[in-house]
Amino acid sequence: MPKKQIHLISHSHWDREWYMPFERFRMRLVRLLDEVIALLEADAGFKSFHLDGHVLLIDDYLEIRPEKEPIIRKLVSEGKLVLGPWYVLQDAFLTSGEAQVRNMQLGLQRAEELGGAAMIGYYPDTFGNISQSAQLLQGFGIKSAIFGRGIQAINENNNIKNQADPQDVHSEMRWASPDGSSILGIFLANWYHNAMELPVDPESARQRAEVIAHNTERYALTRHLLWLNGCDHQPVQKNVAEAIAVLNQVMGADYEARHSSFPEYIAAVEAELQDCRTVTGELTGERTNGWGSLVNTASSRMILKRWNARLQRELERWSEPFSTMAADFGAGYPGAFIGQAWKYVLQNHPHDSICGCSIDEVHDEMITRFKKADQIASSVTDEALRSIASKIDGHGAWKQLTIDSEGAVYSIVIFNACDRPQTDKVTTILETEETDWDRYTLFNAEGERVACQIEDHGVVHGFTLPDDRFRVRWTKRRYTVTFLASDVPGIGHALYYMARIPEQRLVQATASGACYDPAAATWKMENERLRLTVQEDGCLSLQDLRSGEIYRDLMILEDTGDIGNEYEYRQAEGSAPRLSLGTAVLVEDASDGIEPRLRMVHEMELPAQREGSGRSVGTEKHRIALTLSLKPDRIDVEAAWVNQSKDHRLRILFPSDIRTDVVYADSPFDVVERRIEPWEGWENPSRCERMQSFFALQHGSRGLMVAADGLPEYEVLRDERRTMALTVLRCVGEMGDWNYFPTPGAQCLGEQYARFSIIPFSGSHTTAIVEAQRFLLPLRSVFGELPSGKLPASQAWLTHDGEDSVVLTSLKLNEGTQEAVLRYVNLSQAEARAVFRGTLFQHVQGVRDADLREIPLGYEAIANDEMRASVPAKKIMTKMIPLSLQD
């Protein structure tokens, strides 16, 4: 009978920052790698070391030891130092799908430069695993993954908690995505530290080996047993070769231990594995008592989540697409700058970083990285938009309108980042020497006068930095012009004009706003599709005029005490939630003539902090202002307040009265369906979940979606009304985990901000996804002198006319092939139709299919300046489109 093979793998799980800041950990990392390199060069028995799956650690090391790069390359190419494939070990739920693609692209690229990448998906400590992991990995040619969470909760002593079925925790399985992609999955049933610090004393080694062998054999389906020699920031065990030799002496003839690697172990398992179960979709530890899910890291330090959501969106939907468009119109593509911005963002994506579960110093440094990324991304976007605006034939289009004007004519170019046309309010900043803007008139590209509001902000001072001479200081007057931009083409632009017309004055916008009904003591806003009523206590009644459905008591404020930590919400004992119900609020009309708006202010007395396991008697007064904007199909809400209390959680409640057992939420490259009622063994009173930007309930003609900007935690309460709860703030005073680490910064005192949208819909939630996209991607504008280019006044570079479930996720340039890379996904459970049109496809005879590495896989002819496709359910598609790169 063949011997059981013990694959002992030396490693150190390296959180780049966590309970110490990055530089302190780096000092230890340098010492670790110095020792590892010395062992790999000198000790024939020390054959390999796994560098935790993320290549950035090598760059961190080489910044201190640049002279070591040649030996690093040698060891990696020989398979002794196992590197990659990720750039960083990211959290999978709090980072976008495209961020994870960039993460893998950067990791593989850098690992190849250093000698080669380990083609194994590595998720040792990710706080749950997303549904599309298998498809994402397959897109990079990776056929296996190793992960440590999501099947069952794990004790420190290699025991499984809440085990219902022994089959649930076998180490080996097929892990499938909802599109059918599947890979070999290895679950770390004994965690990644089961063979750390092995003894070399024979008797101690025998006793330890019996325990480890029992635990690993209990869950293994083959004779190959995984023993991991390392833990968090673990120094390398220098005498591991001696420890292995002792193991082979004391374990008997049925076992053979060797110093191995993950590639060797995976190959051995694949060669012998036969039948095993298949798990599909996301793995979040549903069959547990609910106390170790780590889901509440989604609400720790919300400022990080807001920064991250905004910057991912800036890069994915503004910097990359519009820089690609500008390149197609003759400008250069700033790929190096975009790549650097992505690196800053990705360096904030490790699970102990973006999850907000580290010490204050770590998160202070993260804000600095986010600010650096913002400086680059916003500058790149601004240059791209201005470049495109300068290429428009403004003079020719204006002459065709035959409108008499006095003096200069100015342009306002509106840009839309959605792949569908968008109509929305836009505010443009004008900095000019003109002083009589009330004599100007706003026109659209068809020559129709457009009502607007102009506000004079007085004299401002600034400067320009010309490309060909010294800086130029100026003094101008600043105005803002607000108006409704109509039907701006998908991923395109529309031109508006500001011109002074003889004997004409500005057309002031006077659209009806909110109205007060004194008899009912309510405020109302209404358009053709929605009717909103605000009660005295601030609760909303929202009627969808298309379906007749009415949603009552929306937007209740709920505050509870939190005696947990950065990892876990735990409600304070002996205290009921504080609700905004029954307390009169201040409501005022804030309409601006363009759209109806209401502003309401809640005053809430909240306990000042925790006292033991409860809440304090002393209170703090909070004034929470909410501004509601009525859009054609949704209600946008901005909340602003100064948090003065500690140890609490603030949520917004939306009783839905929707009869359903499931909730839909967006996840990277997916919309997942989750059951509202947990597994019967669930004990945690809280049942929070994570989302990217929205969650929704639906039944029949009744459907309600809540979309949020950088607020990734929600819960659907298990009450009669199926209340939807959105977390906007959570404040705690300690990190949690293995020691006491105070985190005063996690109390989030001071100014707070939240932005979300209420979207009623009929039928499937997929019909509301487009509206959620519009909420997250408001129009932008560029003001300037009338341009003299060749582009038309209105143009769609890329617009989608197919089914709503097909969503664009990326549009960027492949600088190697000079092709536009278009990626989209079908979020529904059925095949869907995609129809892409626009200038991007003009004079294009065909496009190339590609994988996530942007390696072409095939060719597809297209006709009539459009690309049509039938997209399989849940499928991620990547297309490469040739650019004209015209002057």
Topology at a glance:
Elements: E1 4-10, H1 22-42, E2 49-50, H2 56-64, H3 69-77, E3 81-82, H4 97-113, E4 121-123, H5 133-138, E5 144-147, E6 172-176, E7 182-187, H6 202-219, E8 224-229, H7 240-250, E9 255-259, H8 262-272, E10 278-280, H9 302-328, H10 335-346, H11 351-354, H12 360-390, H13 394-401, E11 406-416, E12 422-432, E13 440-443, E14 452-464, E15 472-488, E16 492-500, E17 515-517, E18 522-526, E19 530-534, E20 540-544, E21 550-554, E22 556-561, E23 578-579, E24 586-589, E25 597-607, E26 610-611, E27 614-615, E28 619-630, E29 635-643, E30 648-655, E31 662-667, E32 670-675, E33 689-690, E34 694-699, E35 702-708, E36 713-716, E37 723-731, E38 750-761, H14 766-776, E39 780-785, E40 794-796, E41 799-800, E42 806-814, E43 819-826, E44 832-837, E45 846-850, E46 856-861, E47 866-871, E48 876-882
Helix pairs in contact: 1-2, 6-7, 9-10, 9-12, 10-12
